[in-house]
Every structure is written in structure tokens, then in C-alpha cells.
Amino acid sequence: MMKIGFIGLGIMGKPMVKNLLSADKEVYVNDLNKEAELEVVQLGAKAVSIEEMTREVDYMITMLPNGAIVKSVLYSGEHAILNQTDLKVKLVIDMSSLTPNESVEINKVMGERGIKYVDAPVSGGEPLAITGELAVMLGCDESSLDEIKTVLAPISASVVRVGDVGAGSVVKLANQIIVNTNIAALSEAVVLAKKFDIDLNEMHQAIQSGLAGSAVMEAKFPKMIEEDYQPGGTLNINLKDLKNVVSTADTVGLTLPVVSQIKEIYKSEVANGNGLNDHSGIIQYFEKINNLG
């Protein structure tokens, strides 16, 4: 039986582990949140220390908030993987959202110890994590592709190699430009409709099959209509991604004026204490500046 280690049982990680278990994988888990660990242990996972995990699993998946935490788990922290002596793990699939430079740096460090590292960020949010239909943007060498697809089959509908290590992170940042700019545009459209007392359900029906229709609209318009901002992807996480977009663009001299403005809007909502809202909750920024809140 394939043994998989999984570190990070947050909004995305926990349902991903559940899908791996449903596919009869042997899954070892680790998270600071022991309640989350217990929830998946009750479904058949094994909660272990990172030290024990490195001795038991062939493949390790990380789904963590940022690059600093990924580095800490893999090599810079006290209990990091590379600090262990009896390493069985041969491949780390990092599904966190990092900058390309971070992915390349981590790959270099892990490679020096003979462990393959691939960046494999995802799109689809909590809903597709639950259904096991995430889209994976994979940075790896071509020889690893089939092996990685086998590991990720229970949690993904699409695994596409977009280049070598680092490329997955670039495509994820591009994805986040499109998603978050679309949410901001949808927010402005909804605010306009509200000002004219348009029935939002009828508006959704009227425009969803036209050029404005999108996966973003289908995921986020209903939440705006219901004013339900329970997170599938938080403003905090998306602000982190937008900061990564802008900082990465700066390293290569790119000017991205639209996404830079979107980042500032997200930053404002986070500063106002709404960082744990779903990113559809960015509409509240537009409502406030138009005195519609």
C-alpha cells in the first residue's frame, strides 16, 4: 500500500487527506492543530511526529500557509525533515502557494540531500478540495510526472506539468491574478446592481451563460447574494498570494498596475479585521466606500 505523509490540515489540507483515505491510501498526518489531526485519525489516518513520518512514508505532501513555514518543516526548523537521520521519504510534493524563488531555493536544498522536491500549487478552493477535483499546476522534471499523478489522483481532476520546479508557482500566481481580479470586478458589478435594486438571483441567471460567466462567478456570486463569507479561501491567504505576485513581478521588472491595486483593496479589508472572511467578502470594501454597507 502507498504510504503518504501529509503536513498541514487546514481548510484545504483536511479534505484532501479525507480523499486520500477514501482511496485506501495509508496516510500519516502532522499538524499543530490536534483537533484536525483527531478528525482524520478517526477516519483512518495516523497522527505522527515529523521524525516518525520521515521514517515511514515514500511520499510527503505539504499544504502550508507560506514559504517560511515550508522551509521550517523541510530543513530550517528544529524538527525539520532534513535534520532526521533515517530518511525513507524520496519525494516531497509541495502544494502550498510560494514564490517561484522560494520553490527553486527549496528544490536546491532538498536535492543536495537526494530528495526530489516539486512545486504543485492548486486551484479550486475548499469546494474542490472536498470533492477531490483540484487543478494542480506542477513544476517538476518530466520523468517524475506519472509518479506524481498517481499520488495525487484521489485529490485532483487535473494535474498539468507547466515546466520545471518553480514554474508551478509562477502559474499559481498568474491564476491568482485572474481569480482575485475577477472577484473584485464581480463585487463592483453587484454593488452597481444593488444600487438599482436589481434582483441578484435574476441577474446571476441573466449573465451566467454570457461572456461574463466564469467559474469564479459560479463560486462567488451565490456567496455575495447570501452575504455568506465563511471561507473557502480566506482574504488573508489571498492577500499573501497577491503580495507574492507583486514581489515576484518586481524581481523581473514587470509593472502590473491592476493586480497592484487589487492587492491594496485586499490589504484594506484585512486591516479592517476581515482577514478570515472568504475572498468573496471583498465586496464589503466596495459597499463601504459607497456607503452601502
Could you provide a short overview of the structure?
This protein is an alpha/beta fold and 293 residues long. The chain has 13 helices and 9 strands. It has 2 domains: 162 residues, Rossmann fold; 120 residues, N-(1-d-carboxylethyl)-l-norvaline Dehydrogenase, domain 2, CATH 1.10.1040.10.
Structure report:
The chain has 13 helices and nine strands. The chain is of the alpha/beta class. The protein has two domains: 3-164, Rossmann fold (3-Layer(aba) Sandwich); 170-289, N-(1-d-carboxylethyl)-l-norvaline Dehydrogenase, domain 2 (Orthogonal Bundle). The strands form two sheets. The protein has a six-stranded parallel beta sheet, sandwiched between helices. A three-stranded mixed beta sheet has the order 7-8-9. α7 (145-152) links the parallel β8 and β9 (156-163). α1 packs parallel to α6 (125-131), α4 (67-76) packs parallel to α5 and α8 (167-195) crosses α11.
Order of SSEs: EHEHEHEHEHEEHEHEHHHHHH
Instruction: Please give the largest β-sheet.
Output: 6 strands, parallel
Which CATH class of the largest domain applies here? Alpha Beta
Count of distinct structural domains: 2
Structural features:
six-stranded parallel beta sheet, 13 helices, N-(1-d-carboxylethyl)-l-norvaline Dehydrogenase, domain 2, alpha/beta, 53% helix, 293 residues, 9 strands, 2 domains, three-stranded mixed beta sheet, Rossmann fold
